[in-house]
Prior knowledge:
Helix content: 40-55%
Strand content: 15-25%
InterPro entries: AAA+_ATPase (IPR003593), AAA_GajA/Old/RecF-like (IPR041685), ATPase_AAA_core (IPR003959), Bact_Antivir_Def_Nuclease (IPR051396), P-loop_NTPase (IPR027417), TOPRIM_OLD (IPR034139)
Protein name: AAA family ATPase
Number of helices: 19
Distance between the termini: 56 Å
Number of strands: 27
Pfam family, one: OLD-like_TOPRIM
Amino acid sequence: MQLKQINILNYKSITSPVSIKFKEGEVVTLIGKNGSGKTNILEALKRIFTNSHFTTIDRTDHVKAYYYFQLTDEDREKYFQAIELDETDGLIKVEYNDNEPTIRLVSSPAIQINVRRFREQAETILNEYKIAANKYISNLKKIEVDNTSEFILYTQVDVQNDKGSLTYLDSWHIQETQRQLKEQLKSIQNILNTFKDDYFKIEDYNFSHFSSNLYHIELHTIVEQELKISPIIAKSLGITKKKLESANIRLNENIRNINRALHDSYNSILAQIKKFERLKEEIKKVFYKADDDRYATQEREETSRNLFMQELNNAVFSNCYYIDNENTLLFSSSPNKQYLTQQASIENFKSQNPLIEAFHNFLLTKKLYKDNESLLKFNELEPSRRKTLILHINKEFLATHIPEFDKNEIKEFVLKEENNQLSLYIIENNNTEVNVNETSLGRRWYLTYLLVKSIIKSGDILLIDEPASFLHPQAQQEIKADLADLTKQGITVIYATHSPYMIPENWGNVYNVYNTNHGTKIHQFSSDDELVAAIKQELGVKRSADILFNLDKTLLLVEGLADETCIRKFAELLKYDLSNYKIHVCDGDSILQVAYICLKLGIPKLYIMLDNDNKYKPERYKQTHSTYSECMSELTKHGDKCIFIGNTENGCLEDLVKDENNKFKYFNTRQQTWKILASAINKITDQNEVCKETLSNFEQLFNELNIPKLTNN
């Protein structure tokens, strides 16, 4: 797995998240002024990576951070066939809080089952059930004895239920039947409520929803009747025996019709209930099988997860090596404390001793050991073997590591045995022999770096604070190339620097670190940053560092050196504060392209000062500059950031300087325009040397540029 990002949430001057991203094959470079927080970032990273409880860093300054790792295809195949990641972008997130990392990365997969067909079947059952239930109740009400019906004339109408019991069918019996029908309806409706979406998570499935008892619904039918009427009533109504028999026939035929309707609607109810029961059984089988499958794979997933967690833990706490200017160097400047500093700084190298380990690894790789020999147990070696092994180290290891930048000064490095200990010496070209502990800080730094470099391997992390501090420019460029090579070997390299010689030429993965009222902040550059590319093209690789080192300031783009001269001089005369402004001089036409890119990138602290003649370029100029229209369109959209100077088509900065005696301007006959005499402007020492209108013009310009007045303090 690959480390992609670390968010440092807090540490010393870091009070809000600082995000460092890691790109394969690119060094992470921190630039910025003294006190900006570069060292704090490195110290926080050291704490995060090493997981060491024994450190010289004050533990009262707590560290909280997040790691983000990206899985390889092999990782996904190996560990995550049945596990989904929490992070939507596929990154593993690890929370670090002072040596107590909480790995938040995986969760059991949400097994989802397509329940659309279950819902559709339940909807059909529900609709059919409602129709049958309504018909059944409607027919029952026809034989309700306390209802107005054709049976009200008779003294008694016998109704039997499905158990054969005879009773009156009154409103109470009908209400009870309606209640039974509604309870069964709720069971069907519950399925629809549960499966309202097309997919349903097995974790949300409750088997109790589908195990409820059936509700008994009674079937009521009318017993065929024999009408009996007293002779007196029959005579008064004119009903003969024949008419009474005929009435009985009609009555029972009506009863049979009603009973058939009751049976049909009742049977329809039972049919839908049976369908519903079959549906429940089908749902149970599907969900039981899914649940069984989940439990069957749980043990395999747990084993896979445990293996992954161990691998992740190893990735979180990699071998991390930290080198600063002096405290972590392997060599002391005091001969009496030759190895005290080395031993005290072991914690910076994961409790390893690079001085011995580097030589040990060399001997091991070259197969120069005999059985059971090890330089790590130096005192146990025979004196003759010590001498032989030291000879191999001097001729085959140290002799190959003299840096190019020091070959004119150093003849060789020599390892010696003194008082049963190993001591390292430098033999200078004049044959002077100097103990490394007594040589310059730059050489001690380089030898520490050399030995650490020889033991680090792919997957390790190297943190360096100010590698250029004691190295001359040639040495810095060699070390920069060397560090870039280490990243290609899979080693994560992070260093902080003030030197433009140490900044990667493509500005790949460079962070500008700056301090604000809200603590340390950073701005990331990258090799594909349009602004970096534009500035590099306009200024060149080396000079581009000047502007990119100052992006914490307000960037002010001007057209030429004369513009910069006037702004600085009149700001001085009028007491305006330019300390938080970075004036960037663009030579002539390049200001349009650089300004366009800066605006498109949305740089918030930006002002652009242009001559008004840029708006009125001739057609032949526009034809040769294909991006002119696009640039001007973008500039005119940002009237709050773009200040066009002059009111005429030929308006320019020179118009602001009112100079009747041509003391500060001259006429360029070739270009047929007035130009500023920068040398004369620089000689102004008092406001009285220029006219009030000139001062007023620049005062108005500074207000438009939001340049503040200097305070009395």
